[in-house]
Structures are given as C-alpha cells and as structure tokens.
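Interim report, section 4.2 (structural modelling).
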Amino acid sequence: MTMLFKPVILWTDALIYLLVMVVLAFVWYVRRNEHMLAPWRRVGHSASGMAALTVLVFFIVIGLLDTVHFRPTVENSSNGEKVYSVEVLSLLDVIAAPLRTRVEKTYSAPFAAYLYARETIELLDGGQIREFPRLQFGGAHLQNPEVQLFADVAWRAAAGAALGFLGWCVLVALLGALLARRDNARFLPTLSAIRRGTTEIPWNAVLVTLGLILSLLGAALALSTHYHIFGSDKVGQDVFYQSLKSIRTGLVIGTLTTLMMLPFALLLGIMAGYFRGWVDDVIQYIYTTLSSIPGVLLIAAAVLMMQVYMEAHPELFDTIAARADLRLLFLCIILGVTSWTGLCRLLRGETLKLREMEYIQAAHAFGVSHWRIISRHILPNVMHIVLIATVMDFSGLVLAEAVLSYVGVGVDPSMISFGTMINAARLEMAREPMVWWALLSAFGFMFALVLSANLFADAVQDAFNPRVRTWSLKAGKPQRTGREEDPETKPVAVAVKDSISP
Amino acid sequence: MSPLLQIDNLETILHTGAMPVRAVDGITLQILQGETFALLGESGCGKSMTALSIMRLLPEVGEIIAGSIRIGGEDLLLLPEAAMRNVRGRRISMIFQEPMLSLNPVMTVAEQIGEALQRHFDLRGAAQQQRVLELLNQVGIPDAAHRMTEYPFQFSGGMKQRVMIAMALAGEPELLIADEPTTALDVTIQAQVLELMRGLQQRSNMAILLITHDLGVVAEMAQRVAVMYAGEIVETATREDFFRSPAHPYSRKLFAALPGRAKRRQGLGLEMISGNVPPLSQEFVGCRFADRCDHAWDLCRTTAPGWSVVATGHQVRCHLFNQNSGSRIQDPVKAAETDFQAIPNPKSPLPNSELLRVTDLKVYFPIHKGLMKRVVGHVKAVDGVSLTIARGKTLALVGESGCGKTTVGKGILQLITPTAGSVRYDGLELVGLERKQLREKRAEFQIIFQDPYSSLNPRMRITDIIEEGMNALNIRNNDRTDHAGHQSLSLQGKKVDTLLQRVGLPPETKWRYPHEFSGGQRQRIAIARALAVNPRLLICDEPTSALDVSVQAQILNLLKELQASLGLAYLFITHNISVVEYFADEVAVMYLGRIVEWGSVDEVLGNPKHPYTQALLSAVPVIELNPKREVIRLHGDLPSPANPPAGCHFHPRCRHAMPVCHRTYPGTSTFSATHTARCYLYPQQQDTSTKHEDCCTGASKNSKF
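Predicted structure of the assembly:
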C-alpha cells in the first residue's frame, strides 16, 4: 500500500511550523504567569484590536492551509509504480481545486461570462466572425448570460451570504452558551450583555467583524464555483485564487524576516548596552554602517547573486516550488539582515537604562554571571519592546515584499505574491479597455491584511508600552453615599467655623 | 474673619481599574488669609489629589463628584474652564515637588515667568522684564539680571525651586499651594527654601496650603495642621495643640514612629503602625484606621466616627473622644506608651574586632570630550575616604546628595572599580581581586538599595529573587545535601521560608511577583535577599528614604533586630539625621567626596565640630514648639565634584573661612579617641605652630555654639 501523496516540507514550511510551535509554547507560558497575562488582557479589551485580530485569524488560517505541502501521485501505467507529481500542492490548492484548475484562455472581467478579448470564431457554415467568445467555466451554466447573469449572481450571492449568516448565528449561540456556562449566568442575559458591549472582552466588535467576514465569505464561496469573482489574468488564471495564494507569501515575509532579524537585534543590542566599552563601539559601528547603505541596493545585489547561483545549479532543486521557496527564504534572510538595526538601537538604549537598575546591581553584588544577568534580568525586561517592534514591523515587511517584487528583485516569478500580481497588472493598466481587477484585488487583500495588522499592533503597543496608561473610563460611577444626610457632618462644620473665627 | 479658602465635603474619585478610587472622600477645611495650613499625611492619602482638585487640574481619570471649593466666596467648581484659567496662577498658585520636572527645559527662566505675567497682567516688553527681575530678586536668585536669560538646566535643584516659587508669585496669588515643596531637596537647601517661603508670606500676607509628610517641616512652617488619612481628614488643630498633644491615634503613632536619639537611649524599638494605608477603592464601613489602631473596639469597625472637639480649634475624628459613645480609654496618650516593644541593644563586640577597613578610597569618573573622547578631567566622586567598621556595629555615612556617599558604598562592594585606595575586608584586600576570587567573598557583604521599586526584578517571583544569590554563590546550608540535589532544593525552599518569616512576611508570598507588594514589603524582600547569603556586612543605601514614616519605623526595627540576633555590621548611608541618631554607633560626615568629621554618634551629633556638620544639623527641621536654636544657613549649593574648590572644599560656603582655607586642605584634628574632624578651626595634628595659633582663635570663636 503506497501513499496517495508524498508530504513535502519546504524550508519556509519548516520555519513556519517552528514559529507556530514557538507561539504555542509562548501562549502556554503566558497563561501560567499572571504578570505576563495582564498586558494581553489589556489587548483583549481593545475593540479595534480584537476586530483586527478576527480578520488576521482568517488570513493566518489561509496562510497555514497553504503551508501544508505535498506531492500527489501520478499513476504510471507502464511499470505499475507510483510516481509523484513534480507539482507541489498545498491543502489550500486542494480545497480551491475548482479555482485552480478552471483556467480560461486569457483575461475575463469579474462575473463575466465572456472573454475580455475578441477571437475569430469559425461558424458552422464556414464563415468567420470576430466576437467575445463564451468562457469555458465562468458562467458556463447559463443559457443566455445577457438575461440571466445578474439574477443568477444576485441569487447565488444572497444564498451564500445567508448561509454565512446562518453559520454566524450558530457561532453566536455557541459563544453565548459558552460564556453563560463559564460565568454561571443565563443564556439570554449573556447575549444581551454581548450586544450592549458590557462584556470584559468586546465580543460585540468581534462578532460584528465575524458576521461581515462570514457573510462575505459565504457569498464569495457560493459565487466562485460558477464565476471568476475577481476575473482572470492574462493566462486565464482565477485572480481570486491568486489573491488567496499571495496571503501566505505576505505572511511568510512578515513573520520569518522577524525571526531572522531577532537573534541579531537581541544579541547585539543587549550586548552593546550591557558591556558598553569597545563591544558597544564595535556594534554601534556595524549598525551605523549597515543602516547607511541603501537597503534596496543591498537586497537587489544579494537577490541577483542568488538568482545567478540558482540558475547555474538547477540540479539542486527537484521541483519549481522548492526553488521558489528557497528564493523566498533567502529574501527573508536578506530583509532580516538589513532591518535589524532599528530594533538593535532600541534594545541597546533600553539595556543601558536597565543595567543601572538596582536589581541588576544587586545581582552583581551576588556575583551572578554576565550570561545569567542578561538572560534572567535583562532579556525578560526588554521583551515588551521586542514584541511591539515585531508586530509593528510586520505590516512594513508585507509592503516591502510588494515593492521589491514589483521592482523585480523580490520573490521568484513563479511564486504568486501581491508583488508579482501588481507587477503583472502594471502593464494592463495602460491597455484599452483597461484591466483593473488584478490590481484592485491585490490591493484590496493587501490593504485588509496590513490594516488589520496595524490596528492589532496599535492595540499591542498600547497594552505593553509602560508609558501609555490606558485606564478604562467605562468603570461605573460610585453610588453617592448619603453624606449630606450624615447627621454628624453638619454640626462639626459649624463647630469648625466657630473655632476659627474668634 | 471669613476664610479665604473654604472647602466643603469635597469628594474626588479616580476612575482607575475596576473600582473607582475615592482619592478625596468628603473633606472640609478652611484656610484664613495669610495663614500657613499644613496638610499632613502618608503617601496615598489623597493630599495631592486635594491640591489638584482645588486647582481643577485633575488627571483625565479624575472627577470631582461632590462638594464645593470657595475662594473668597466664589465657588470654583461652578466656574467655566475659561474663567478658571484666570484663577489659576492669579488667585491660586501651585508649586510642585519635583523642580526638575516642572520647568520647561527649552524656555529661559525669564520667558517662563513672563508667560504668567503676560497672561494675568498683560505685561510685555521692558515692563515684563523688570517685573521678572524683581521676582527673581525676591526669591533670592543671585545675579538675577544675568541668570534670568538662562535655561533651567543651568540652575541647581534649589535654585530651580526658587524659580518655581517666583513663577508662582508672579500672579500675586492669595493662596499658594505647595505640594511637598522640599521633599526632593537636601536639608540645607530645604532650610533655605522654607525660610524663603516664610519670609514671602510675611511680606505679602499670602495664605499657604502646605502639603507634606514631614512632621519637622510642619513644625517649622504651619500655623494650623490637618492630618489626612485614607482620603479624609482625621484631625485638625493649631500647631501648638497638635505638637503638644496629638489626639488621633494615627497622629500619635506618627510621632512615635519618628526615630531619634531619645528612643535609642531608652533602648526601645520604634512604634510601628502595622500594615499600610488601606486601598481607597473600597467602601469603608467604620473608622478607616481601625485595622491599624491599637485602641480599636467594635464600634470603630461598624460606625464611622464623626468629629469630636478636643479643645477650641482642635477636632478629631475618633470614637475615643466622643463623649456620647463613652470614651473607653481615659488617657489614651499614656496607654499608647505602654506597648513599645523593647529591642535589646546588640551585645557589644570585642573592641578591636575590625571587619572592614577602607583606606584612602578614590573613585574618579573620567570626563570625555571632543571627537576622540579625550579625557579632559575627572569627576572626583570619592576623593580619599578612609573608614573602618567594627563587627556588629553601625557606621552612618551622612551627607547631602551628590557628595559621593553611594559611590563609597558601591566602591566597597567593588560594583564600581575604585581608582585608588584599598578596601580590606577581614584582612583580605578586595581591590584588584579577580572576578572569580571576588565572587567567593561576595556572600560576606551585601547591599540594600534606596528604591524598593527598582531593586526587585519585576519579572521574577520572590522565591527566584531570594534564591538567585544562594545559587550564584553556592550557599549550602548543609554539606550532606551536596550529593542529593533534590534534597538540597527542598532545603533551599525551607530556607526561603525562614528568611521571609525572619523579615516578617508570610512564607506563602514567595510565589508572588514584586508588583503585588507595597514599598515597605518590597524593602523587606530586598533585605531577605541580602540575608540569604549569610552576610556579615550590610551596606544600606538610604533604605528608608523612599518610605513613609510608619513604614520606615518597621524597617528600622527589623534592621536593628537583625543586628542584635545575627551580629551584622551596617554601613548606613543616609541623609536623614534622625535615623542616624536612632540607629548608628558611629557617624562619618561626608562633603564633596571626603569625610570631614568622624566620631561616635553622641560626639558628632551632640557636639559637632566641623562647620559643615553644624550647619547640616541646624538645618534639620525639629519638632519643637519654641525652637530657640540658631539655624546656620548655608549659602549656595554643593560645588561640582568635577572642579572642587581649592583648599578646604567647604570654604566657599563656610562662615568661618580664613585665608588658609583657600590654599590647602586641612589636616586632621583630634578631639577624642574616636572623634576627629578636618578643619583649620581646630589644632591640626601635624601642622606648624604658626597655623596653630590662628586656629586657636578660630576655636575660641567657635566655642560660642
């Protein structure tokens, strides 16, 4: 019995798995420590932060689905052996197989039933006409698209949205029941508390966001089986599918780059601040030099060198995906190498402050070793800066990838990313009639991802930054104590007056 | 006479966290024209919130929910914000605790004062400059015409506070609110500022609301006193009544908690107020002080006491004085005095059992300048300090901030590498030891820091904090356990429990994090951490100066008790003379990196020889009703240790300065086997007879003190 597929773990997959494990371990650790949990609770109290997190979760789920890679088998009848396809697929590819496989000839507009370009069609009687041919898949089920298209799209969208809404209702009910059980409250009052926004975590904001997403998702799913909802690109690929695939690339760049730069920033920044003297001088010299070289230049040079090497050694990669993936990883590394200086400078400053703190002096008085002081006293006390910096950097990195790919030094051309989508759409903007949908959907997805990441980063920053104290003004006003009625107060006030006016 | 300021039932709450904090909970007070009214209380009692409520400058989360604040009959709480701006700075001015933080660093002093003049009197140009100059002269800024165009960083702390006062006076206010105006200043500077405020008040007949926690400042300044506790006023009295016979148990405890020589002589521990100020986020039932009060009975826990009149102008919020409820204790003052607990003085150790000898210790910090960071000079933080500490004894190192006390402590511990000199601990030279060799001796001497909030790592549990030193220094209580790691772990756990109990904390607290403890409790944890490695010498760097009086007493008692039971020697670094009187065996007075006088506590404090010591002691506010002492005012500030004056460092501020003082640093003058000073007023040990003569005249002059 042979397997139907062969799991493939690409380099970035491995690192993402590692990252997920690190995050899970961190969550587990934070849950056990009240003082570390407290700022996360404050994140949980931010309505915009939680709404943004809800959106982010959808992106992350899509990204993770797209990370589980494998190679399906191809039946080889000549010798009866199982042979694995050279094409590497992900779970997302399987789920979105209809989107992936239904490739048109070339451009088609969103919800179109006809191609966007005229073709010469041979009529049955031998004559030729040039007209817009019907699409192979988009709206293929319609007899008479001109008449039926609008009604069909509206009906399917409504049905999908309704289904999504139904799912949302189920979720709301589940959440209400769960909260009611936890707080030993009754179901309906819990629901109304959620609606009024008096719960500790702003569930109403989360649920509104979730409702919107689920309805949109329902509609999109219902429509995408019969239409190209975002149109198709030059080679006829579905743009919706491309947008979904781009999410992983963006997430990988945003997270793995941080992972690459953290060791540099942490180690060098803390060392510079803690040891000072010549260590500080050397490290400062390095990062000042590095940050004065234009980043794009450095990245372009490194990526081009890598590209030349890869092309000279095609035998190193058994699939195209493996090659594209290594190039992505390399891009992460080079971005990481050029972007650690900012965080390093922050950490150096904070360490300079911390090393004069009295608890560190006390540790010196105990003869605690430098390594232990750094790992037990300094590192935990700069983690909030690291966290804020990484969350804030994420969106910047997603945008950087788009810019780099647009310039042509980003990811491999075979890898779908926001940058390559924009790059491909660039030329078509000048066409008449204009092809606008590829650019718009890349922009829309990227905007949603970056905006939610930024909103979440703001919430994290507010919660972790010790200088920004956010008091909740919602706390109820105290009941007036009947002080005026207090019989003892008035006579005394009089007595006091008497006593000071002789 | 109608009061200038009349506050009725003022209630201010802060919307912080889940429960609103009732920072000010129904206070009523009057301030008359031209009087100084002191609001006294520990931190967290709502004193500052009262002041901010009067100014209507509460933080965003603050809200005044009831009451009225009338100044000259006008209710401030009813004024629109625009009208309130005419009150602030004009009718009521305020000076704050931190002079460093209350001036804008990018505006010159004249601009900042001019702002207020322009706002309230529409003074501009030359007239404004003239008025600024007048104000600065009024608050005693020397060379005001030049200094008015300087920036705040060019002024010292005391001068900044003078500028703040000048700014507050610019609007010619009827009421000046001074929120801990001298807490951040040294005693000699504090004396200058207090004198200035007194003088200004007498001249302009301005009322002052003085907010402070310092009984000494109250005794020197106030005409009437209100004691604030947990958001309400518990006692109001005239100064005389208050200091003659404080009525409220809390007030009495505050007095009893003050350290001083008398209490040391009696061999008594300090009166402690157990526990802390209760959190103000709760609804109080009964008396707020009941949990900490020795006289509390059932009534106190169920009914909030109303005002009882003790004498004319002397009210107290306490059931003890309420005739209707039947006073249980006839003479509460006497009753309070019975429950002092006696702490035995440590057994006197062998006379010459010297534990630490520091000889000619110097710590210089290089000043770098220019592109190549050339060393252009040195800050001589410690410039030739010699001292010895005997086993089980306490040496107090006294001096103003910036004189190098803390650097001496760190230099002894080798936390800062000394530039020169020797530190011999139990015969072993510590200076120049390798890190590894030094580590073996680290357990012998430990340090306790001033600020309990920054001395514990906020991310470590108490047990980890205490165990850290034990682990780093491999402290094993029992040799047998070296083989069985598991057993040693549980033993270590037990040791942590014992340590926590020894410093008066329940062992269960060891699983908690520092932020869950109050300042006093944190200081106890810091002591437990130091004790964990069984030291014989503890360097206490101002261990109580960040704490309230009642908590200070707890910590001092604990330290004294530990000295008695463990035979610890202390190097007690402080600027608080009353703590020294209570605590120390010997005193070394430090000025600008050098020790100027040294002797036993009675010799130095009872019969100070060096002019600096005399000035320092006289500047300390004393709780006496009729102080007849002469206060020696020191002029100017501590000179920069980067560029100390030639000759005797003290001569620019000394009123006995002689020509010789400008030239060379004085040698040692010996008064008894233990008492020495460095001053030309006294016969120099190794000096020629000519100098001797004019010193004698100085000495005879000095005998007047």
